[in-house]
Amino acid sequence: NLLDNLKKQYPAVVEELVPGLMNLGGVQKVLQNLLKERVPIRDMVTILETLADYASAVQDPDALTEYVRQALGRTICSAYLREDKTLVGITLDPDLEQVLAGYADGVRQGQAAVLPPEQLQRLYERLEEWTGRMAQEGMQPVVLCAPKVRLYFRRLVEPKFPELPVISYAEVPVDISVRSFGMLSLS
Fold it and tell me: 93-130: per-residue pLDDT in tens?
């Protein structure tokens, strides 16, 4: 049992977290979310401590996952760093990010918010171009974006780009420099 194993290894954190702040299902959902995006979950202390820090104010497993991702930022980014410790990625045009933020807010309020099909198709085509260019130059394609749109953008592109890492700027440690390979826009 996951909880029993965690209790043996991290008794203080687990007792603070489950069941007082979260149930086991919530913890499992956060871990599943992380694994789905290939985020290593070896650092269980950081994961559990972050959940304990935020679970009293936030119940949504998706929102909690975003906080955990920020705490695991160095681990997430290290897989995509160049030799000069630079994180190179495709960035989002500010206008596109603003449009996505509006849709993301709608989703958080329980609305079915989806880009119109022609815009979604254009987004897929442009993203295909940029990821192809990065791959041609021997780089792992990565998208960098604002924290408030990261999850929404990830879910938007997941059907066509299931392996594409989407990293928020809040996940990038301060000692790692970021460089834009190109800017994704709809225009």
Answer: 999 999 999 988 887 777 776 889 999 999 999 999 99
- The answer to whether the pTM exceeds 0.85 is yes
69, 30 in Cβ contact below 8 A? Answer: no
For 38: left if phi > 0, alpha if psi spans -120 to 50, otherwise beta; the answer is left
> What are the residue ranges of CATH 1.10.8.540 in the chain?
2-71
Which pLDDT does position 29 carry in this prediction?
97
Report the C-alpha gap between 153 and 166 in whole angstroms.
Answer: 8
Q: Which CATH class is domain 2-71?
A: mainly alpha
Mean pLDDT by 10 residues, the chain (187 residues): 83 90 94 97 95 96 98 98 97 97 84 85 98 98 98 95 98 98 96
CATH of span 82-184 = 3.40.50.12790
**Tokens encoding 42:** 């070896």
Residues carrying CATH 3.40.50.12790, the chain:
82-184
Give the whole-angstrom CA distance, residue 127 versus residue 161.
9
